[in-house]
């Protein structure tokens, strides 16, 4: 057999092997797109799936996403730009996974507060969250379900702070997505620029993590390219048993949910022991 004939045979063999391999890869891509279609990165948000009857809840900056058969209630704090599109899509995905979700626009809530001393604002925030959480639990019929406090960026810092103060009834876990090393109970222009607050009333997130009761599970979700990732060198050691989830190909905003979405769902389930 000539060298040319051998080359033709090898080339033909490669073609016969590559064709089914490429076809299989294409099928897997299509299947993956179907399985995770609810995490697609679209520009629009998702409308709430439930309208509260309680007038206090209707006046508050809240969005409700109900699950058909919920196994937990997630109270999700939005970030410094509000409870925006990516968080709305995530909330709908969590509801599809069996979690009732109440999304709170913290930016709107803080904007409605007058200028006041940090101590008064902290007391008002604790009281308001206690009241709204209780009302939402009754509204949704979730008074016996485990509770998860969650949030993104500044919202994650507020979730950790609240869990460390007076843990709400049935608190099972905290899911902090992209937190920094410090937080405060307000939204400022420096938050948008990734500033770490140091003024009176601000707090170290690692100190709050230490103060959360030992029985509460804490999950830290971080994008691999998050510019605040260095905060984890302080946050992770502060909490024995902390569950850290590193999301590949994700930055700080976590707006692309194709990969991050399922991983956040898993983090939520981990905090309630599922």
Write structural notes for this entry.
With 274 residues, this protein is an alpha/beta fold. The protein has two domains: 1-35; 44-271, Rossmann fold, CATH 3.40.50.1820. It has helices at 3-35, 55-59, 85-96, 106-111, 118-140, 154-165, 189-192, 205-211, 232-235, 257-271, and strands at residues 62-65, 72-77, 99-104, 147-152, 171-177, 182-183, 203-204, 217-223, 243-247. Helix 6 runs parallel beside helix 8. Residues 2-42 have low confidence and may be disordered.
Number of domains: 2
Order of helices and strands: HHEEHEHHEHEEHEHEHEH
Largest sheet: 7 strands, mixed
What Rg is obtained from the alpha carbons, in whole angstroms?
22 Å
What's the name of the CATH homologous superfamily of the largest domain? Alpha/Beta hydrolase fold, catalytic domain
């Amino acid at each position: 057999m000539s060298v040319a004939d051998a080359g033709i045979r090898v080339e033909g063999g490669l073609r016969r092997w590559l064709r089914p391999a490429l076809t299989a890869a294409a099928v897997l891509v299509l299947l993956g797109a179907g399985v995770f279609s609810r995490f697609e990165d679209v520009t629009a948000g998702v409308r709430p799936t439930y309208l509260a009857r309680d007038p206090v809840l209707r006046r508050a900056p809240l969005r409700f996403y109900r699950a058909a058969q919920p196994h937990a209630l997630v109270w999700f704090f939005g970030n410094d730009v509000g409870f925006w599109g990516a968080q709305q899509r995530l909330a709908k995905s969590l509801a599809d996974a069996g979690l009732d979700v109440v999304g709170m626009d913290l930016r709107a809530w803080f904007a409605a507060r007058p200028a006041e001393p940090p101590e008064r604002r902290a007391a008002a925030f604790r009281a308001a969250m206690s009241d709204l959480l209780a009302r939402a639990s009754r509204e949704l019929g979730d008074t016996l379900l485990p509770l998860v406090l969650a949030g993104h960026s500044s919202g994650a810092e507020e979730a950790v702070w609240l869990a460390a103060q007076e843990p709400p009834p049935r608190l099972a876990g905290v899911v902090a997505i992209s937190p920094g090393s410090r937080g405060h109970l307000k939204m400022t222009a420096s938050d948008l620029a990734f500033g770490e607050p140091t003024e009176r009333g601000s707090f170290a997130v690692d100190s709050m993590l230490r103060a959360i009761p030992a029985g509460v599970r804490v999950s830290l979700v971080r994008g691999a390219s998050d510019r605040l990732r260095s905060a984890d060198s302080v946050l992770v050691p502060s909490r024995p048993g902390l569950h850290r989830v590193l999301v590949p190909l994700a930055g700080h905003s976590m707006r692309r949910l194709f990969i991050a979405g399922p991983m956040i769902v898993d983090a939520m389930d981990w905090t309630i022991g599922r």
